[in-house]
Structure formats: structure tokens, C-alpha cells
User: Fold Glucose-6-phosphate isomerase from Sediminihaliea albiluteola.
Amino acid sequence: MPSTLLTDLPAYAELRALADSLKSASIQEFFSQQPNRVEQFTLEAAGLRLDFSKHLLSAAAHSKLIELAQQAGLAARATALLQGEALNNTEQRPALHSLLRAKQAPLSALRDKLEQVHSTQQRMRDWCERLNQGQHQGFSGAVITDVVNIGIGGSDLGPRLVSDALRFYHGDIACHYVANVDPADLQSTLLELSPESTLFIICSKSFRTEETLINAQVARQWVLNAGASEADLDKHFLAITSNLEAAADFGIPDQHCLPLWDWVGGRYSVWSAVGLSCAIAIGWDNFTAFLAGAERMDEHFQQAPVAQNMPMLLSLLEIWYCNFFAAENHSVLPYDQGLQRLPSFLQQLTMESNGKQVAQDGRSLPYHTAPILWGSAGSMGQHSFHQLLHQGTRLCPVDFILPLTTHTGMTEQHRFLVANGLAQSRTLLLGRSAEEAKAALLKRGLSDSEAEELAPHLAMPGNRPNTVISFEAVTPETLGALLALYEHRTFCSGQLWGINSFDQWGVELGKDIGMDILSRLEGEQKAAPLDPATEQLMLRWREAQRLD
Ligand SMILES: O=P(O)(O)OC[C@H]1O[C@H](O)[C@H](O)[C@@H](O)[C@@H]1O
Assistant:
């Protein structure tokens, strides 16, 4: 069946006209025309509050976007996702990450899968308790005190983020993360640890990812070098994978392997056994609360009408700027140190899911898909890239993520952080005209001509769209809801663009070429040379190793 493209939807043309008419509109004027704009453009769900009043969005454009979502059948698509329809059409699979946090199966046909989820959760819980109660010992009899998750991409970003974000919930086990195949990553982590008291979780859905396997081999040798025998290794290694055979070949027995299923995509897998490291860090009850927060967002996504639906609304805003205002970027700025890795997590979630150029049916798309997502924890960015946000030539919508309280107990310092977040959001809205800049310069004692000359450099256009997602505190529940919110937003945008958000063929070719180059670096002679530039770099590498 041919995919429905964004441009096929009747509201598309009307939105294009509306967007054109709004290109010189003023968000501040919207506030005066619409006295209840903040109330009307605020949504609440699962402990999160989303304020989208500071957008280049008139009431008419907002209604038209809702119509667009209705025409695309987003509500029915949400049901199809949550009920396990095989939406990943290139791999003929469902994308059932929501089942990982469900207490009940949405359909009786999904009961078997849910049972597998629950029995795996029981095993995760056992490991969490065993480790946190100091009941697991290494080869020398020393109690395990440190856990190292070795994984990359979806087998790293999610658990690392959760562990970081919920550090105030940590118990006695310290969790570490190694992803990069650069030996410096593993080396610097191991330098702090003792092999006798360290447990490695080899986290790889495929158990074929070279980076992870190489790091795992080095870790294995590190434990052996410390005096462990081969038979002792199972005391130090767990595997999370859907490829039990490969894990067994590595030497990890079945009872130390926790399963993952092909209906869970890597970037959607933090809710599964992939989350074991962070579950160990925060304890099982907190991990359950994290799942519950996501489940609340799933329920909201399923039940709320489009106009009240937070993931749908965020997706409509993404489409609005990407496809009607040619925005190429999207920035996410968490005003919370623990959430500093949120942009990295969202990069994989959104750009690996929706960085696609063909529709589900293989047709080339006549429009752009996923914008480039980036960001960092506030307030650091204010002293680097916010300059571009305020005065650059590009349109870059921003999501501010704003917890209202801190776990540090340092409320006064936190107040300063909140003031900064609110100030940035407001400054993007207000900007400053050249006249205002000039007046400020005159006040500072500059002469009229000096002020006149300098004023254009101080002027800021303002009117720059931003969303504020606030919540009381970063808790397991709000974090679960926040990540599920962005997952569903990503899905909705993929549906509106007509693409499959659940495959990632674009990463495969680079892996194959990487293996070819590795064999050449290792000295294998091959008939056909590579391109001259790569050949020259390989030669330079050989010279640097003093190989020739
Ligand atoms: O969990 P693994 O099978 O080791 O995969 C790790 C990562 O690598 C792949 O290249 C994919 O791009 C990611 O989606 C995946 O999360």
C-alpha cells in the first residue's frame, strides 16, 4: 500500500499558507490578542507540564495542525503501535517498547510476550537485590562493589542517562559505563576499579557490535590477569542480548544472560534488561517507578484527544518548524546537571529513528525529515552557543527542560539556575530592538554616534520559538514520563512524514567498510585498492606504527 505523505494531507496546503502569513508575526502580539494563551497552550500529563505559548503559532495555525494530525490518523497509529502492529515494515516487526512498562497486556495476543517481560523483570530484580545486599562475590571472595556496563548506542545511552539523572537515588553499588572502542575509555574506567570486586554487564542486543565485543574481550583478560580462572569468569560477567548463542560463545552461561527481543529497538530498550545497570544503581523499586512514569505517558498518549495529547503536540511543533519554516535544527536544553546526557540520548532516538529519506513504501520523500538535534545542560550553553540562538541567522526551536526543585538541598543556588532557564526562554521571546540597544548604550555613557554604531551589534531579533517542559523534580516517575514523551513524539513525527522510524539501515554500510579497512590495517593484501584518500591515510597509520 502506498504510504501517505505529509504533503498528501489536505491540511498541508492550508498550513503552508498559514505559515507564510505568520513569517513576520510577533509572538508577543499573540499574547496580547489571546489573553488566556498560556492556559490554552499548556498541556499536563504524567507529572509534566508543557508550555508551548512562546511559539510562532496563532490559534488558527494550532487548530490546523490538530486537523493535520487527525487527517493522518495519529490516534489510530498510536493504538497500532501500542497494540503491537508490525509497524517496522522493513523488518516485519512490531515496536513494542511500551509493553516493557505495561502492567497488563493491551491485547490477549500480547500476553505471552508480557509474561516474558515480567519473568525477565523478576531476574533483573534478583540481580539488583543480590548485588545491593552485598551477596554476590567475585573470584577471590570479595564482594562486588562496582558494575561496568559495556555497550554502545541504545545499549549505553539510555541506562547511562537514567543512572546519571537519578544519582540521588543511588545505593551502594557504583555503576560505570564504557562505550567507546577507543581503549582510553575502558582504560580510564578500569584504572579506578579492582578486578576482584567488579562485575561487567555486556550489553548488546545483537552481540555482534565490534566496539562492545572488543571492550568485553579486554575486560575478560583484565579479570583473568588478576588471577581469576576461566571457570571464575561467570562471577564477573552478565550479558544482556537477544543473541544467546553468541553470548555463550563468549563464555557467558545461560543463567547469566538476560534476554531482549527483536520487537524492542535498541534506542527504545532502556525499559528492558538493557536498563539492568541503572536498575542496580537506583534499586529495583525506583526502576519500577521509572517504568510506571513511562506507562502513565503511554496511557496519556493512547487516550488523550489530539489537542490535549502531549507527544502529538510536540511532534506537530517539530513538523511545523521543519516543514513549514525550514528549520534544520532543534535544541534541547535541560536545566539540570543530571540530565546533561539527555541531548545525546535524544540524538539517537530522533535522528536514528527519523533520519530517513524514503517513505515506508520506498518512495523518495519530497521534504525534509528529522532536524539535527543538539543541546547541553543549562547554564553552560549560555556561555557558548546561545549566542547563535539569540543572534544567529538560523531558526532553531528550543525545548527547555526545567525541574522546579533540586535534590541537592542547595535551593538558593538552584534558584539561580531556574532564573537563568526562565531568562533564556524569555530573552528568546523578547529580543531587543536596535533602539532599545541604543538607549541602553546612551545610559552607559556612550556618545550618540558611538551608541548608534554599536547598537546593531547588540540588537536581538527575539520572536524565537521555545517550549518549556517543567516538572516538580527529576524523579524516577518524571524521568520515565519524559523519555516516553520523546519516544512517542518521535513516532508521531515519523508517521506524519510517512517513514519507518524503527529501522536503521544507514548505520550498516559504515560497519562493513570498517571491517574491510581493519583487515587492510592488519596487513591483509587485497587486489582492489580503496579510494586514494583512504589509501593515503592507511599509509600514514602504518608509518605511525613504524610498520614499514
Ligand atoms: O545493542 P547492539 O546490538 O550492540 O547495538 C548497539 C547500537 O549499534 C547499532 O549500530 C545501531 O545503530 C544502534 O541502534 C544500536 O543501539
